[in-house]
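Severity: low
Component: inverse-folding endpoint
Summary: output formatting inconsistent between runs
Steps to reproduce: submit the following structure tokens with default settings.
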């Protein structure tokens, strides 16, 4: 007889995503999360996993973070989604909180529901304020699957939906030479993830983002940094770009902003472009964008993530994981492990795709949930919960070592 879990899987396959079910069944990595809390999720069958992907940062503060839940529950006594046409106290307060964390002048905020929506707005705004068309993004980068966000991405996701909007061009990440050639007087904006996750957690060379900004300035183009994954403390700074001495013209945030509890995203832009919406206040509309309950979740997230103690913890755990993982790389040299990243935004590169895929399966069997980087499958994205304890970190490392050992033949 089918268990309740089997029934859920079947109903999901029948009515939601048959392809996903097939994929997970093929690799025997079916996970139906039920109980969740802190850095762990449990399958409906009782098996528990450390979540070391965190949905790209949605669960930065862990699953069902108590403080976020409290903030949202209290807000629900009084508030609801709110009315996007009207003036709103939570939207105003959150905007001020975010503006206070940004470089001078980056203090205008438009809310959205998802990362893709916030990226779309950033691109609309860049075209609107510059009156120019071209948008340049990184090959293998990822900004979402909505309209303009999709257009910044790779062909494999666009092919089926042609024609996609025109005026989008991609260049190699970390090549200033290619960027210099690509940006021209008709470039509205360059959009980049501060650390491209789907590309394999590739950290920018020290002077890359600064160099891109200079190229943008020379051409009166804007620099949009996508902090959907790097934001809210993931790299050990509140914003990933703070690691690279660069001040973008726009910042896009999502995922972790929700506290894992209520979806909300935002596009932050420089006050020099304020006139655009002053003249056209109803040019961009999102009914649920910055819903008031979501604002309370995000206010709590900002409050927690901007604390020095919190950011220091991310840095120290990032350092600890890196040291330990590098040591394991030396102990199991046949895996060809290279560790990269910033803070707790880490990429584990293995000698080839097959090794990474087998390890994902071994991690899964041994109780760690991770995924590979879509555009470089030999890299496992390693994104633990940011407030993870040292005991939990050690436990995760033990599981990693057990898995490395079996992969290396025991
Ligand atoms: C860097 C980055 N930008 C944008 C997005 C799109 O966010 P959403 O899925 O909320 O639309 C994602 C989603 O994975 C992302 O990783």
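Observed output (run 2 of 3):
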């Amino acid at each position: 007889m089918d268990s309740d879990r089997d029934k859920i899987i079947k109903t999901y396959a029948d009515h939601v995503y048959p392809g996903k079910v097939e994929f997970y069944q093929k690799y025997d990595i079916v996970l139906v999360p039920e109980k969740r809390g802190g850095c762990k999720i449990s399958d409906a069958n009782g098996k528990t996993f450390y979540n070391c992907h965190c949905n790209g940062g949605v669960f930065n503060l862990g699953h069902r973070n108590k403080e976020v839940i409290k903030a949202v529950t209290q807000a629900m006594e009084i508030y609801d989604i709110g009315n996007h046409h009207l003036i709103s106290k939570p939207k105003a307060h959150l905007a001020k909180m975010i503006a206070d964390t940004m470089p001078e002048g980056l203090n205008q905020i438009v809310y959205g529901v998802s990362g893709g929506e916030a990226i779309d707005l950033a691109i609309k705004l860049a075209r609107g304020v510059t009156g120019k068309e071209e948008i340049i993004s990184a090959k293998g980068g990822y900004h979402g699957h909505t309209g303009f966000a999709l257009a910044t991405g790779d062909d494999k996701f666009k092919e089926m939906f042609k024609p996609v909007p025109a005026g989008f061009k991609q260049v190699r990440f970390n090549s200033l030479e290619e960027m210099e050639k690509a940006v021209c007087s008709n470039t509205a904006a360059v959009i980049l993830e501060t650390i491209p996750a789907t590309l394999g957690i590739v950290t920018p060379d020290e002077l890359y983002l600064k160099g891109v900004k200079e190229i943008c300035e020379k051409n009166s183009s804007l620099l949009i940094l996508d902090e959907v994954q790097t934001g809210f403390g993931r790299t050990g700074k509140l914003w990933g770009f703070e690691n690279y001495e660069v001040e973008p013209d726009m910042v896009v945030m999502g995922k972790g902003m929700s506290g894992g509890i209520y979806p909300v995203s935002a596009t932050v832009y420089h006050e020099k472009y304020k006139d655009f919406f002053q003249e056209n206040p109803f040019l961009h509309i999102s009914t649920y964008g910055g819903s008031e309950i979501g604002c309370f979740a995000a206010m709590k997230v900002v409050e927690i993530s901007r604390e020095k103690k919190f950011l220091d913890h991310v840095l120290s755990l990032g350092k600890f994981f890196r040291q330990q993982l590098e040591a394991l790389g030396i102990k199991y040299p046949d895996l060809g492990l290279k560790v990269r990243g910033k803070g707790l935004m880490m990429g584990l590169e293995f000698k080839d795709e097959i090794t990474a895929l087998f390890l994902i399966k071994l991690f899964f069997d041994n109780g760690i949930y991770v995924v590979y980087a879509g555009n470089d499958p030999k890299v496992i994205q390693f994104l633990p919960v940011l407030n993870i304890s040292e005991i939990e970190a050690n436990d995760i490392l033990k599981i990693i070592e057990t898995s490395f050992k079996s992969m290396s033949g025991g």
